[in-house]
Specification:
Number of domains: 2
Strand order of the largest sheet: 9-8-10-11-12-17
Distance between the termini: 52 Å
Largest sheet: 6 strands, parallel
CATH class of the largest domain: Alpha Beta
Number of helices: 15
Structural class: alpha/beta
CATH architecture of the largest domain: 3-Layer(aba) Sandwich
CATH topology of the largest domain: Rossmann fold
Strand content: 15-25%
Helix content: 25-40%
CATH superfamily of the largest domain: NAD(P)-binding Rossmann-like Domain
Radius of gyration: 25 Å
């Protein structure tokens, strides 16, 4: 093993090489950008005149860049020289987070100008993982960082997100600041995807490389008497998107639903299982899937999901919270079984897998959280976590008739997406816990 001075030189020479070829080291949540010491990014300025480079954690682009992390001053005399810094004369610290707290809260911007506890905790964890760990062997940490390096060119990925005001679209907006992509968020007013020429013009003007189609007609019961509009959005628009994606060699990620199945299965649905929708919503969503498969744009996928809820929009969780505060008891269906999907987890998965999507034919994937439960079980846990006294009573579907027929069994087998993209899917209670905390309802 080299002595400290040689290791120090090796580390900094490697960083200089990365800097000279204008590369950004990319991670799933954050980016590490190497800058020369002395670059003025704020009041955390020391080490002027040194030639060494130091890592700076970037949370969000801004001309730009809003810096959440602080520069690390490399000192040959430090025991863990490339991780330590000296913030007062003669006083060294390897507890990097103590100084980060001063830096990022004063300078970083997140949504309303503040950093949420949730995101700050993630930042702390990522810093500990990426920066504080000592270099145990020659080049060990260097290799760990560079293993996921991506070129500056690869960062110029322009992504069109349709239906950006929906639950998944809204979560994509919130998470997008953690990713090195350029995302264009559109809704019905800014881009009408039922008009083919409008899509073409937008994609050409903005040099779109990837489309994430979150747009959908999701008023399940209303669709029963509004087939034309449901079909336009869930089917015809998907056909247009697939056609343009194929013509322009664009990746298309389309979100579909468990409603394409009849819900009469006895084991978790595989992607290859026979579809048999029982509602207009399910039929139009299936027609959209079929259209996309027939056109077959390369490097494109369909993600079927179920029971979506989020911090944003109207959903089952928010309805239960509201009713739980208003009523002493509620009847909730117990004979419909499936798994909730926390939209934040789905959005993160989509952003994580974009670079990994490489397939000749359109592939279908299932995604929901892990576990199995009924709507009754879900409501019970919401009341428990929120500490609401409302009593939940189990009722059968026939006691709560709706215009559209719901699948009685919506459990999805997620083995394929976990295997192909090497991802882990959180348990449903973890998603509910996080959502309730964000809503300020976790007691």
């Amino acid at each position: 093993m080299q002595n400290k001075t040689n290791l120090f030189d090796t580390w900094n020479n490697h960083k200089k090489q990365i800097h000279s070829i204008e590369k950004i080291i990319g991670f799933s949540l954050f980016e590490i950008v190497f800058m020369k010491i002395g670059t003025n990014i704020g009041y955390e300025q020391d080490g002027k005149g040194e030639d060494f480079l130091r890592p700076v954690l970037v949370y969000k682009k801004f001309n730009n860049r809003v810096f959440l992390g602080i520069p690390l001053t490399s000192k040959q005399s430090d025991d863990k020289f490339h991780f330590g810094f000296e913030y007062k004369k003669g006083r060294k610290s390897f507890a990097i987070l103590s100084q980060i707290r001063l830096f990022d809260i004063k300078r970083a911007k997140y949504k309303d100008g503040k950093i949420s506890k949730r995101n700050f905790k993630e930042l702390q964890n990522k810093l500990l993982e990426l920066i504080v760990t000592p270099l145990e062997d020659e080049g060990e940490r260097t290799k760990a960082i560079c293993r996921e390096s991506i070129s500056k060119e690869a960062l110029n990925i322009n992504i069109l997100v349709t239906g950006s005001n929906g639950q998944v679209g809204s979560e994509l907006k919130e998470l997008s600041i953690n990713y090195p992509y350029n995302l264009f968020f559109t809704d019905r007013e800014t881009l009408d995807i039922t008009h083919e020429d409008a899509i073409k013009d937008f994609i050409t003007k903005n040099s779109i490389n990837v489309i994430i189609n979150c747009a959908a007609y999701t008023a399940v019961d209303k669709a029963e008497s509004d087939f034309e509009n449901a079909d336009k959005i869930n089917h015809i628009a998907v056909r247009y998107l697939a056609k343009i994606a194929k013509e322009s060699s664009i990746k298309l990620i389309h979100i579909s639903t468990d409603y394409v199945f009849d819900g009469e299965n006895y084991k978790p649905y595989m992607e290859s299982d026979i579809t048999n929708p029982k509602s207009v919503y399910g039929k139009t969503k299936l027609d959209g899937e079929v259209a996309m498969q027939e056109i077959n744009p390369q490097n494109s996928i369909i993600i079927r999901t179920s029971w979506v809820y989020s911090y944003y929009g109207a959903n089952f969780v928010k309805t239960m919270l509201r009713l739980g505060k208003e009523k002493e008891s509620l009847g909730v269906i117990f004979d419909q079984v499936g798994t909730p999907t926390y939209a934040s987890y789905l959005a993160k998965t989509i952003l994580d897998i974009i670079p990994k999507i490489q397939n000749s034919n359109v592939e279908i994937y299932n995604y929901s959280n892990e576990g199995v439960l009924s709507w009754y079980d879900f409501a019970k846990e919401i009341m428990k976590m929120a500490k609401l006294s409302c009593k939940i009573n189990p009722i059968e579907t026939k006691e709560y008739p709706t215009p559209a027929k719901r699948p009685h069994f919506s459990l999805l087998n997620k083995a394929k997406i976990k295997k192909d993209f090497e991802i882990e899917i959180p348990y449903w209670k973890d998603g509910l816990d996080d959502c309730l905390r964000r809503l300020g309802e976790r007691r």
